[in-house]
Specification:
Two copies of one chain form a homodimer.
Chain A (H helix, E strand, L loop, with lengths): L1 E5 L3 H13 L4 E5 L12 H5 L6 H4 L4 H8 L2 E3 L2 E7 L4 E6 L5 E5 L2 E4 L3 E3 L12 E2 L4 H14 L3 E5 L3 H12 L3 E6 L10 H13 L3 E4 L3 E5 L6 E4 L4 E3 L3 E3 L3 E3 L2 H5 L23 E3 L6 E2 L6 E2 L4 H14 L14 E5 L2 E7 L2 H6 L4 E9 L9 E9 L5 E8 L3 H13 L24 H14 L3 E3 L1 H9 L4 E5 L3 H6 L6 E2 L2 H7 L8 E5 L4 H12 L4 E5 L2 H8 L2
Parallel strand pairs in A: 1-2, 1-7, 2-3, 7-18, 9-16, 10-11, 10-16, 11-12, 26-30, 27-28, 27-29, 29-30
Antiparallel strand pairs in A: 4-5, 5-6, 8-17, 13-14, 14-15, 19-20, 21-22, 22-25, 23-24, 24-25
Helix pairs in contact in A: 1-9
C-alpha cells in the first residue's frame, strides 16, 4: 500500500499521521511546494505582532519529525505538476534541482490548501502589498516593518485575518485604515452585531472606510497611495490585502476531479472525490453545513485537521466519516472577542427559515467579580424551536459560550433545552443563570410562551409603514429623557400595572427597557391584563441605540 | 389565587418572580426568618476575602425591589412555625414583634434552604468557630478578622467552600491549616485528580492534615486549639467549619411531607411534594441525576434558581418540568480552577458501569500563546460508549471545557461524537484540536479501536499481583533515567519499530511516554506488528508520577 499526499500543512500532515497510526506497513509520502510545512496559519498575525516571538513556534514539526515519529517521507519544495488518475501516478518536480520524476500511488490525498485572492487592479502585486497566507509571506511583512519602519497601513477586507492584523499592526504602533467593500465590518456577522465591532474599532483609533472598494494601488517602486472607487485616496506605507481566499484546485481540475462550493474539491463524507482512490481534505476541499446539509466552503485550520484525520483513516482502512461543520469562527480584537456559529439571521432567512431573533445582553460573570457585558444574538427556527446560530460580541467568556452553543446546536438543541443545562457556576466563572441559559429562556418565552420579540430593524419598519402602535419605554424618566425610541411614551415599569388601564388593548404594543429584562416584565403585565399583541424590543434600548449609527 | 413561599433566597425568590410573570393577579407572599434576602451565597467567600468590596453587591435585591418590580410581598424576620396542609394554612411568627398569626395559601412553596452541619464536639459552637452559610455569618467572620487580626486559621473540610475560604483567607495574610477526614482533599473528586490540588495547595504554603478528624475545639472564651483524632493539636486563632450542609426540613417533616435523598424534601419533576399544592425547591429539595435518574442531593445556587423557576411556573399554571442535574461543580483556588460534572470513576463503578478512563493532559491554548496545561479525567461507559463524567484541574479555560462536556453529556453524547464538534478555534482561545476533542479521540480509540488505556492504579495492581508484563518507557533515555515505572524497560519511540521484533508478542505490554501521545504511537506500532494485548498508560508518566505521593 502506497499512500501519497499532496500538501504538508494541516490537512495533509493530519492525514499522514492518522494513516500511519492505522497501518504500520504502508509507504507514506508527502509532497509540498513550500519550504515550511505543518505550520499554524492562524498564528501568523501574532507572529507579525510579536506576540509569538519564536518563528519555530509556528513550525514546530519539520520533515525529520515526520520521518522519526511517523515514518513518513516529506518532500519539501516539490511541486506536483500533474495527476494521472488512470495510471495512478503523479508527475513531480523538485524545485531545487528542477528534476522531474513520476511517482505512483495506491491512494492519493489532495491537500493543496487555499490561496489569497489577488484583486485584478493596478499595483496589486507590488512588493509592499502583502497577502498573509503562509510563513514566507509573514516573514516578508516582518522584514518590511523592520526595514522600512512604516507609520501607516491600509488593510483591505475586514474578515478575521484583516481584523487580527489590525490588532497586531496597531500594537506595533502603526496607524491603520480599514477598507471594506460592504457597509459593515466582519462580513460574516449580521450588520446589527457588526456595529459593536465598529464602535470598538473607533474607540481604538482605527480608521474605517466602509462601502468602498480599492481600484488602484499607486506608487513606484513601493505603493504609497490606495485609491478607492469613491475617488478617495489614502496615503499608506504598505497594504495588507485580506479579501478572502480561494481553494488551490488547478491540479485537481486538470485531472478531471469534480469541483463544488466556491470551486473547492467536491468530496463525500469519506473525503473521497468523484474519482476512486483520490481523496481531498483541508482548505482545498468542500465542507457542508450540519444545519442545512448543503455544501459550504469555510476553510479553517481546525476543520482541515478533522478532514485530514478522516481522509487518513479512510485511506488506511478506517471508517471515520465527516459530519460537517457549523461554520464556527472566533477572533480576538484587542480586548474584544467576536465569535459565531451556525446561521446568521441573514443566512437563516435566505434558507427560508421563519426566524425568531433575540439579542441577549449579559455580563459573563457577576459585576462584583469583574464581569463584562456581552451581546449574544441568537437565531432560532420558529417552527421547530431549534437553535440555528449565534453571534457573540464581548470581552471575556465569549469563547466559552460559543462552544456551549456549538455543542448544543450539534446535538439538535431546541431553545427550551438550554435552560436545563447544569452549567458550572461559581462567581469567578459565571452568573447564577449563565448567559446561555438566559438566551434559551428568552427564546423559549418568545417561541413557546407568547412573549414575542421585535428587533430594532423590524420596529423601525413598522413605524415607517405608519402602523398605529403604542411604544412604551418602561425605564425611569431620567433614562427616557436622555434618549428614547422616537414615538415612545414613558411609563416606568412600576407604574404599568395602573397606567395600562388607560391604554388601548386592541392596538399593537411594543415595550422596552434598557436591555430587555424589564421590557419583558412590562410585556408580561400587559399580556396578563389582556392586551392582544405585545412585543418586547430584543436587547432593549441599548441594542436599539447601537443600531442608529 | 394566593401563593405563599417560605424562604427568600435563590429558590423562593425565583419561584415568586416566575409566578408573577405568569399571573398578574395572584397574591404572592414570601416569609423569611433572616434579615438578608435574595443574597448570593456563592459570593460569600469573596466578600470575606475583600474581592467583593460592597456588601450590597451580595444582596442587590431587597423587599422593596420585589414589591415594586413583581408586586410580591416579602416578610423578613418572619418564622413559619407550622404548616397545616389540611386547612392549607401556616402559623407565622414575626420575630421582631413576637406576634403570631395564621396565613392561608392556595399553593405553598417550601424553599427553606440548607444549613451547615455542626459537629457534635466540644467547642463547636464557640464564637470564633464559624459556619459560612449566610450574610450574617460572613459579617461575623469579617468583623472577627478586623477586630482580632488573626494570624492563623484552621479550615475543617476541603469541599468547595473550604477551599474557596482557603484562598480568600490566605489572601488576607492568614496562615491556613486544612483538616480533612478523608485521605484526599476535595472529596467530590477521584483521588487521582485530588493529588493535583494537594500539590498546588502545598506550593501555596497551605498546611494540610489528611485522614484525620477534629475531636475537640479548645480554648475559652475563644477557641485557640484544634484537637484531632490522632492526638495532634493545631494552634489556631479561629476555625472555619465547612464539613457540609443539610437541608432545612423540620417544618416540612412535621407537616407530614415525605423526605428523600440526604433527608431533603422529596419532589417530582414538577417540584411537587407528596402533598397536593405543596411544592419545594432549592437547597431543601431533592434533585436527581440526569445520568442515573436516581435521587441526588447537590445543593447549589444555580440549581436552586432552576428549581425555583419551575416551582413558580407550576404554581401559576405553567408546565415547566425539572430535568435533573449532572452534579456540575467548579471552584477557583488562587490561579487554579477545579471543575467536574457527571459521575466520577468511583461513582460510576458504584453504579455498576464498566468504565473506560482517560487522563488527557493538554494546554488550553498553544504554548506560544501562554497556554497552560490542564488534566482532564474522563469516565466513559464501555458498553454504550457514552460519556459519564469529567473532572478537570487546570488554570485557564477549564470552565469552558467543563461546560462543553456538560452540554455534550446532557444530550447523551458518545465519546466518538466529541471529535466532530466544530468548536471555535483561534490561537488566543484554543488549540487546533481542542482538549475536548482530544478527550473524545482518546476514549474513542480506547473503546472502539482497540487502543486500550490503563490507569496508574490499575498498572500497579497488575504489577503487585506479579503478572508477567512488559512495560515500555517510550521516552528518550534522559527522561527514563530521571524517573520511570519500576519494571519498565526503555525503548525510545523512534526505535520501537525495530526493537519490537525482540519482544514477546504474546505477553501483555504496557507503553507510556510523558503524557500519553507518544505512548499511544508506540501502542499503535506494537498492535500493528501483531502484539496481542497492548495498553497505554492514561496520562503517561506525568500522571503516573503524580499518583506516587
Amino acid at each position: 500500500m502506497k499512500i501519497v499526499i499532496i500538501g504538508a500543512v494541516a490537512g495533509g500532515t493530519s492525514a499522514a499521521a492518522k494513516a500511519r497510526r492505522n497501518d504500520e506497513n504502508a509507504e507514506i509520502k508527502i509532497f509540498d511546494m513550500d519550504y515550511d510545512i505543518s505550520y499554524s496559519g492562524c498564528g501568523l498575525p501574532y507572529y507579525i505582532g510579536e506576540e509569538i516571538q519564536d518563528r519555530e513556534d509556528l513550525t514546530p514539526r519539520n520533515a525529520e519529525f515526520f520521518k522519526k515519529k511517523y515514518n513518513v517521507d516529506v518532500f519539501r519544495r516539490h511541486e506536483v505538476l500533474n495527476i494521472n488518475t488512470e495510471d495512478k501516478a503523479l508527475t513531480v518536480k523538485n524545485l531545487d534541482t528542477n528534476d522531474v520524476f513520476t511517482e505512483s500511488y495506491d491512494k492519493l490525498v489532495i491537500a493543496t490548501g487555499a490561496k489569497s485572492i489577488v484583486p485584478n487592479i493596478p499595483g496589486a502585486e507590488n512588493s509592499n502589498v502583502f497577502y498573509l497566507r503562509n510563513v514566507t509571506q509573514a516573514d516578508k511583512i516582518k522584514e518590511y516593518i523592520i526595514t522600512h519602519k512604516p507609520k501607516s497601513a491600509v488593510i483591505v477586507g475586514t474578515g478575521f485575518i484583516g481584523l487580527e492584523m489590525t490588532e497586531n499592526l496597531k500594537n506595533l504602533g502603526i496607524e491603520i485604515t480599514l477598507v471594506e467593500r460592504l457597509n459593515q465590518v466582519t462580513p460574516g456577522l449580521d450588520s446589527d452585531m457588526a456595529v459593536h465591532v465598529e464602535k470598538y474599532l473607533k474607540s481604538k483609533d482605527i480608521n474605517m472606510v466602509l462601502g468602498d472598494s480599492v481600484v488602484e494601488l499607486k506608487g513606484e517602486p513601493l505603493v504609497n497611495q490606495v485609491v478607492l472607487q469613491s475617488g478617495k485616496v489614502i496615503n499608506s506605507d504598505f497594504v495588507i490585502m485580506s479579501i478572502g481566499v480561494k481553494p488551490n484546485v488547478e491540479l485537481a481540475k486538470e485531472a478531471g476531479i469534480e469541483l463544488g462550493a466556491n470551486g473547492s474539491i467536491k468530496v463525500d463524507t469519506k473525503m473521497m472525490t468523484n474519482i476512486k482512490d483520490v481523496y481531498a481534505c483541508g482548505d482545498c476541499a468542500e465542507s457542508y453545513s450540519v444545519i442545512t446539509k448543503k455544501p459550504l466552503y469555510r476553510p479553517l485550520g481546525s476543520t482541515a485537521n478533522k478532514m485530514g484525520r478522516i481522509a487518513g483513516d479512510q485511506v488506511s482502512g478506517g471508517n471515520l466519516e465527516f459530519r460537517g461543520i457549523l461554520g464556527t469562527g472566533i477572533f480576538k480584537l484587542f480586548d474584544m472577542t467576536v465569535a459565531q456559529t451556525g446561521l446568521t439571521e441573514r443566512e437563516a432567512l435566505n434558507e427560508g427559515f421563519e426566524t425568531v431573533i433575540c439579542h441577549n445582553i449579559k455580563p459573563d460573570k457577576p459585576e462584583y467579580y469583574h464581569g463584562k457585558e456581552m451581546v449574544i444574538k441568537a437565531v432560532a427556527d420558529k417552527n421547530t424551536g431549534k437553535l440555528l446560530g449565534v453571534q457573540i460580541v464581548g470581552y471575556t467568556g465569549v469563547d466559552k459560550r460559543v462552544d456551549v452553543f456549538v455543542t448544543a446546536i450539534t446535538f439538535g438543541a431546541k431553545v427550551e433545552d438550554l435552560f436545563h443545562l447544569d452549567l458550572a457556576y461559581a462567581p469567578p466563572f459565571s452568573t447564577t443563570k449563565d448567559p446561555v441559559i438566559y438566551t434559551g429562556m428568552i427564546l423559549d418565552n418568545a417561541i413557546n410562551r407568547g412573549r414575542e420579540l421585535i428587533t430594532p430593524g423590524e420596529l423601525n419598519k413598522l413605524i415607517e409603514k405608519g402602523n398605529d402602535i403604542t411604544v412604551i419605554d418602561a425605564r425611569v424618566n431620567k433614562q427616557y429623557e436622555e434618549a428614547h425610541v422616537d414615538t415612545a411614551i414613558n411609563i416606568p415599569h412600576g407604574q404599568i400595572r395602573k397606567k395600562a388601564e388607560e391604554l388601548d388593548k386592541e392596538k399593537v404594543v411594543v415595550t422596552y427597557c434598557n436591555k430587555g429584562v424589564t421590557g419583558n416584565a412590562a410585556q408580561n403585565i400587559l399580556i396578563n391584563q389582556g392586551f392582544k399583541k405585545v412585543y418586547n424590543i430584543s436587547g432593549g434600548h441599548k441594542n436599539y441605540k447601537a443600531q442608529s449609527k
